[in-house]
Write a structure and sequence with these properties.
By secondary structure, the chain is of the alpha/beta class. The chain contains 13 helices and twelve strands. A six-stranded parallel β-sheet has the order 2-1-3-4-5-11, with helices on both faces. The chain has a six-stranded mixed β-sheet with strand order 7-6-8-9-10-12, with helices on both faces.
Length: 340
């Protein structure tokens, strides 16, 4: 394998000139730059990325820490980030924390010693001390939070209009004749839980419906909690529609409905936050508030690279719009008849 000294000798320039050409410095003339590139091609010279990283203080490596790889929301977000990073010449490493804050701390500690240029972080749901993220930032690592934004972290972030998406769906359920609309959400003190619960309350107010506290149920965004709450609450028959705050809980809730002999929309109108393409293959089709998972990942990388260019600007919050996709589980029998 050719060395930089051999390339310099072939091109008839100094080693320093070869280094400057590889760094893209404009101080080297076009004629010398052409000679260096020609010598590199002729000798099939592959510059050491490690050496270049040390010289430029850049690794062209980004990390992405997600909270739950089993949640179907995240793979498309990862794909968006991977595509955007590759287009800009960056490698992306993926880490999973299982929504465990201690795992998140350990991952950040590892990343702090691996010279990454930036971090895309989906924070663990339950927050505590965020000093591990702050240490990365103080050490020069740019951070962008995705989907969730801990209040105490002053960083760029990319998410969606959670409240607006839930509000639009609750109003849709009310338009279908539902008057007792239940809400199955996550722990209220969590950022996205609070946002989606606020959207539910706004939707109920806009529809001029009372938001009975007995109709608001607290899960943990995982499938088992959706099943447990469904088995506990559905036999009471206190609601005629339910909005579930994410797909894993909705899957558990639908299992409870099936075991109790209930069907949507015959016995209960249901809708959920988020969308998976595979759901279109099932009947009845599930009504969803779709969020642009792929675009969240892409926008996160773009935001991160902009931060690398200007580390002194104030943090910014990017909110992407959601889309209500009406399926069959939220359309009442009277509405179906009026359409026919």
């Amino acid at each position: 394998m050719a060395t930089i000294k051999e390339v310099a000798a072939r091109a008839g320039v100094s080693v320093g000139t070869v280094s400057n050409v590889m760094a893209g410095l404009s101080t080297v003339s076009e004629e010398l730059t052409g000679r260096v590139h020609a010598a590199m091609r002729e000798m099939d010279y592959q510059p050491s990325q490690v050496a270049r990283s040390l010289k430029l203080n850049q690794t062209h490596t980004l990390a992405m820490v997600i909270s739950d790889i089993t949640n179907p929301f995240f793979p498309l977000m990862v794909r968006g980030a991977e595509d955007a990073a590759a287009e800009r010449g960056y490698m992306l490493s993926i880490f999973n924390t299982d929504d465990d804050l201690e795992k998140e701390r350990k991952v950040c500690q590892i990343l702090g010693s691996r010279r990454i240029d930036g971090l895309l972080l989906v924070p663990a749901l339950v927050r505590g001390d965020d000093s591990h993220v702050e240490r990365l930032i103080r050490a020069g690592t740019s951070v962008v939070c995705l989907d969730r934004l801990p209040d105490q972290l002053k960083v760029d972030s990319v998410g969606v209009d959670n409240a607006g998406g839930v509000e639009s769906c609750v109003r849709h359920l009310a338009e279908q004749g539902a008057r007792r609309i239940g809400y199955l959400g996550g722990e209220p003190r969590l950022y996205i839980s609070a946002e989606r619960l606020a959207g539910y309350r706004r939707g109920m107010k806009a529809a001029k419906l009372a938001a009975n506290a007995d109709w608001v149920w607290e899960g943990d965004f995982r499938q088992e909690s959706g099943y447990r709450i469904g088995m506990e609450e559905l036999p009471k028959k206190s609601v005629d529609a339910v909005f579930v705050a994410n797909i894993p809980m909705m899957l558990g809730f639908l299992r409870a409905m099936a075991e109790l002999g209930l069907e949507a929309p015959r016995d209960l109108l249901v809708a959920t936050f988020d969308y998976l393409e595979i759901l279109d293959s099932f009947r009845p089709r599930l009504t969803c508030v779709a969020q642009p998972s792929y675009q969240i990942g892409r926008q996160g990388v773009n935001c991160l690279l902009e931060r690398l260019k200007d580390r002194d600007r104030l943090p910014c919050r990017h909110l992407l719009a959601t889309e209500l996709r009406v399926g069959e589980t939220s359309v009442s029998e009277s509405s179906r008849k009026s359409r026919n």
